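Lab meeting, action items carried over

1. Structure of the two-component assembly. Owner: GW. Status: complete.
Input record:
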Amino acid sequence: MTVITIKKSKIKENVRNKTDEEMDSLLSLFGVGVEEITESNISLDIPPNRPDLLSVPIFLASLRTFIGKENSLKKQKTSKPEKNYKVEIDSSVKEIRPFTVCCIVKNISFDEQKIKEIIDLQEKLHSGIGKNRKKFAVGIYPLEKINFPITYKAEKPEKIKFIPLGSENEMSALEILKKHPSGIEYSDLLSNFKKYPVFIDSKKNILSMPPVINSEETGKITENTKEVFIECSGSDFELLSKVLNILSITLAEMGGKIYAIELEYGKNKLLSPNFKIEEMKVSIENTNSLLGLNLEEAQIGKLLEKMGHEYKNKKVKIPHWRGDILHENDVIEDIAIAYGYQNFSRELPNIFTIGQSSKKEEIKKKISEILIGLGLNEISSYHLIKFHEANASKTEKIEVENSKTDYKSLRNNLLISALRTISQNKDNDYPQQIFEIGTVFSHDKENKTETGIKENESLIILMSPANFTKMKQTSDYLFRLLNVNYKIEESTHLNLIGGRTAKLTINKKEIGYLGELHPETLREWNIKMPCAVIEISLEEIFDILLKKD
Amino acid sequence: MKNNSNNLEEIIEKLSPLERKILPFLKLPMKEIKEKSGLDKTSLIRALKFLENKEILKIKEEKEKIINLGTNGIYYKKNNLPERTLLHMMEKNQTIPITEVKKISKLSDNEFSVSLGVLKSKAMVEIKENNVVLTAKKEEITKKMPEEKFLELLPAEESSLDAEQKFAFNNLKKRKEIIEIKENKTFGFELTPLGKELAGKEISIELIEEVTPEIIKEWNKTKKFRKYDLNSETPKIFGGRKHFVNSIVEKTRRIWLDLGFEEMSGTIAQTSFWVFDALFTPQDHPARELQDTFFIKNAEGKIDKKISSKVKESHEKGVDKSKGWKYDWKEKIAKTIVLRTHTTCLSAQKISQLKKTDLPKKYFAIGKVFRNETMDASHLFEFYQTEGIVIDKNANFQHLLGYLEVFLKKLGFKKIRFRPHFFPYTEPSVEADVFNEETGKWIEILGAGIFRPEVVIPLYGEFVPVLAWGMGLDRLAAQKLEIKDIRKIYSNDLSDLRYKKIPI
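Predicted assembly:
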């Protein structure tokens, strides 16, 4: 999500609504999130499918259209390219950033605010749908500083030398990637290539090295700039076109006039920008059945116009800067937004279905009720455990990549979190009797799962102070109430006292252990009171009880 | 005055056994109260506190200096003070060269010089021409020195010492670790006017404390029960309890069941295929980066070719006239293993298992989901999410809003609004806000929509409207439980688990 901030007065000029509350409601229903309304500004959360609304002029025009004022956006046209308005695309860029689309905008009257807006838009497009310039990069240049025709080609880094924006000295491409702030930030996008892409004008001046940086001499817009050259380079031609359209329309909304440029991809010549309107069929029937409405064709037409579309003969003409309409349902959503989410009735259909909770959840609930009846407190802990905890338990580790916290491994047992809990509750009253039912993870050695990871439901009971007898009484009571037979046999466990450790079995299958925690373990956890524990897998119990069911 | 005596009687009837034990002695000093009542210190303090509650007395805490034996003091008490050792020696020989005395006495340098000084100051020995000479008379020697008497007296309170004891105390205080002084808080009290009337009263009536089987057996009407002080503080107790987050989970489950939904379950670790690809999330979507999602190290899962080939087509070229995302869909990326970032993967799996004759169906899921985030007061890396879907040929957007309204009302929200939103896998999409009366602000609570044809067709074979909605439960839980720091939900602090108030 990307947030833009617009002067409150600017929005007020365009809409009739006056109070903050009314504006909040209107903007929300238009489909942007209202982050904050202050004395002078409104901050809006623009959804990622509508990068066009990041442009303040497009946003305001769209909002005007939405509330029923005329559609001011649909009449933008391009003028034919003047004589040498040409960009040649050399085949050397094919493997790097193969495409560019360009245009020229004249008659602009920039002021500080407008320059800020356009740079802001450029940056937000870069970081949002541009994935930090990975997908595209935009350059804007004062027209008077450059000489057509322009070439877009790849050069060896040592041959590329120019003064990068914000710098005083000429630097080589390699120096830029090492020393210039933008160079350092985006070096990953180029450093794997043998050649780097550049725009060069007819006087052999380097205009920029996309996606990293413009030239200080030719790539800096000031308040005196009246005419600009815009290029957008990258690997997804259609996306580049949409981005260029958003930018050129924004400048046109600021009063500019758009001129086309001829792009030469070898023998292939085409004009840019491409303002071709896309058409899509919209069925009245599909619209009504998906929305639950009874709209007529004329109504649908009116609603679509509110969203900046045109509608004729069951076909919608989509604004050429919208890239989010993939399917008829996207258009239907626009109809719904124009209709107003507040105007839909909230209906309950009369279909008959039967509620049913998961059987395993029911068994888990029963177990927890039995234990709560014994006076135990249920705990709930994270599925991820800390690195050192996973190491200390000497069990198999399933690690996640790049965790931002200490919690780095999926738990293989519930004992760790139970011990952590007791250790952190030293200042609370004793006896402390806790239990948890939760998922534990292990490698799937039988190769039965999709993920290679086996997930089992487990139960831990830990009491302090307590001894073997107490735990045996507890397990006896639990299994008696569950009506499941189990056996206890002498066993060993890393963390328990020998001779006071038992394994629990059901039908000769080991399901867990029971016993007194060894002072060594308790000391490791800084626990000062004796503890006894039961940990069992619930899977066998599920099987038995579900069969009985 | 009659009233008053009635009052006194009533008060006496309410006295607990402890209080009754000390009441007759209240005019005596503390030490004697303790001795005569036979109570230990804790019981005595409790009794005094009870009496204070009844406004019979007022407790005053006083700091007392307690004098006790130090390490050397313990030794000397057993084996004599060094001056006594020296005196014994002198008694045998009367005159000893000063150079010899120390050797024979086996005292340390320090002990020797101190004890010689002590005996000199008591005029029991003299130094004459490099000899130590005994000057004390026999009866003086046999008599215990004040210091010796003092050691036997300890422990003692400084304020209770008499002149001789003070003298000995001051002498010994200067010497090495013979005595130590500790500050001790002691309890004293002052009687209130009511207390003055009551104190010293012998209590003649026998009152029944606990009802025992014997008392039941031998009950007769002449016996009287002691009245309890009904407002006196009792120790806290606690019982077994469900974790409060699970109370919210169960409440949510109950709502789904009430609405006729069936529960779905599935694993926490999933292939990216189910979490993202099946939900039409393009493979370069930011949510699929290590930054946002937990990927399992060195793991590759399996995916069903039959479904994945359709999902691939949906992404690359689109289905049902959709344009698709137009990129090269890679199986390898879909096979990575992640901790599910939402429970919607379970909905996708469920839809893929459905046959046409199964419809209409309503399903829900509740489970933990994971995001690779740092933790702070409002963010956790794992939290509960709940999710519901309705798969019905006749379902539409108005139904979706209807379900959402019922669902949210059942969760206790009164004022609800819907607004457009964006999710990669639904179209149209909705965000539901609820109004917080306290702050006067709308809070986003739930995301919803109708699954895109690009999601449904590869999984189900054709488009059928699937109404879907999901919400995080932890922030809701934090709000309902008035927990400011969301991490407290999983800190398992037993005082919270035992006493936290849970809304019904």
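2. GW to write a short summary for the group page. Key points so far: The longest strand of chain A covers residues 432-443. The CA atoms of residues 89 and 266 of chain A lie 7 Å apart.
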